[in-house]
Amino acid sequence: MKKYFRRSSGRLRLPPPPAILILIYLGLIILGALVLWTPLANRTGISLSDAFFTSTSAVTVTGLVVVDTGSVFTLFGQAVIAILIQLGGLGLMTFAVLVLSALGIPVGMPQRIILREDLNQSSVHNITTLVKMILKIAIMVELIGAILLCIVFVPDYGWGQGIWQAVFHSISAFNNAGFGLSPDSLTRWVSDPIINIVIPALFILGGIGFIVIADIWEKRTWHGLSLHSKLMLVGSLILILWAWLTFALLEWNNPGTLGQLGTTSARLWASWFQAVSPRTAGFNTIDYANVHESTALMTMTLMLVGGGSTSTAGGIKVTTLIVLILATVAFFRRSKNLHAFGRSMGSEEVFKVMALTTMSILLVLFGIFVMSISHDGEFIDLAFEVTSAFGTVGLSRGATAELDGIGRAMIILVMFLGRVGPLTLGFFLATQSVPRVRYPEGKIYLG
Fold it and tell me: pTM score, two decimals?
């Protein structure tokens, strides 16, 4: 650790921003676990392991649970989980900057650099403006979502509990957390139009990225949008339509999923919800334990891709997938440049995408490998669980509650790394200096 704590002019140098970011998230998880462990937060005296798993899942906005959130935790405990979701989803440094600004304390360069890492930005330019915009968008969208969800929850639960159900689900959906207060998630509202419109709208807005939302709000014309916004919108639309059609085709006559729904409209609503939810939202209106293995593999693909940069979503991100596809097309066309919507992308973006994808795949494979050693259950269930944890999705085929100590530890690690980002870990481990030595080119044979 001496590498990161060198003395400079008699003062102790802080660790690099990615390391500080990891420590901040880890500190919040530990604090959240200790609070959830207290009798004030839970009704059944859960173990510290259960509390730590729940806190990690909330801070990383994943949604995987080992105990039922609605019945095990008190109103105070549920409020703590909602706060952890909000802090983890929007970013801890976002709230820190808000507090500093409210107190009139200037935000220095060290804080801006940490915030840049937290928001996955390449520059500190206008970073505080971005923070204020994120908070405004979050509060406005979550408030509107809660009001609309009251139309469903208040008649079912009464005013007090109904309003809290609406607020909790609005926060959970916008932050792509997937935490619900019912043991079967949202399956009882599988054909309800309001649930099938409001909940997906919340996690699509939260997962598409705050930069895209701000860009749309400011430009309001397709031609004025940035390249990032255009790629996100087009890529998200294609993924949603493809997943919607594929899920419907694969599960239409499955008696355990869509086949048990009586009407065509109910099947279409369920297909729509399951098509958009795997992109890190984690809610479900059907039981994923009953889907075909082909559907599970498709869902795992969606979970791995995730949402957009500077969003509440996880995964490798939609733009990463698009750049990979564009680089592949450019290779077969013998082109050295990547083009999209009249703009070009440099090799730096390609290298970053390759690093992110490689580390993500290795992390998921390592997680599946460890899980398969300590568990002899269905392989597809274990792979589904690990992929869900990495994408901070929260969908499960029922394996979460059956995990032993090693399995829980592995899922916690994958959830944590899936949230702080494989590249953050890469930056933490990598050298900070640019190599000055250049070597002559060598010949290797590929393929």
Answer: 0.86
Characterize the bridge pairing of strands 338-340 and 343-345. Answer: antiparallel
Cβ atoms of 114 and 21 closer than 8 Å: yes
Copy the structure tokens of residue 258.
Answer: 């869509």
**Strand-strand pairing, 343-345 and 7-8:** unpaired
Tokens of residue 256, six digits: 């355990």
* Tokens read off for 90: 């929007």
Taking alpha carbons only, the member of 7, 5, 33 closest to residue 19 is 5
Instruction: Please count the residues of the chain.
Output: 447
What is the sign, positive or negative, of the torsion defined by CA atoms of 285, 258, 203, 385?
A: positive
pLDDT-based confidence at residue 307 (cuts at 50, 70, 90): confident
Q: The tokens of 270 are what?
A: 């369920």
| 14-23, 168-177, 277-286 — most confident range | 168-177
CA distance 169 to 206: 13
Crossing angle of helices 227-251 and 193-208, in 10° steps, is 140
- Whole-angstrom distance, CA of residue 379 vs CA of residue 335: 40
Say which DSSP state 383 is in. H
Q: Are 188 and 284 in contact, with CB atoms under 8 Å apart?
A: no
Rounded to whole angstroms, the Cα distance separating 427 from 21 reads 12
What dihedral angle (degrees, nearest 10) is formed by the CA atoms of 82, 86, 87, 88? Answer: 100
Phi, then psi, of 338 in degrees rounded to 5: -105, 130
Identity of the amino acid at 109? M
369 and 395 Cβ atoms separated by less than 8 Å: no
Domain range list for the chain: 14-429
Per-residue pLDDT tens for 395-408? 998 888 888 888 89
Q: Which of 398, 392, 356 is nearest to 380 (CA)?
A: 398
Share of the chain above pLDDT 70, in %: 82
- pLDDT digit string (tens) for 181-195? 988 889 999 999 999
**Average pLDDT value for residue range 23-39:** 92
Mean pLDDT of the residues in the chain: 83
The secondary structure of 367-382 as a DSSP string is HHHHHHHH--S-HHHH
271: left (phi over 0), alpha (psi -120 to 50) or beta: alpha
For residue 442, name the pLDDT band (cuts at 50, 70, 90): confident
The closest of 187, 232, 184 to 208, measured between CA atoms, is: 232
The one-letter amino acid code at 281 reads A
- Give yes or no for a contact between 271 and 258, defined as CB atoms under 8 angstroms apart: yes
Nearest to 336 by CA among 318, 350, 319: 350
User: 428: pLDDT confidence band, cut at 50, 70 and 90?
Assistant: low
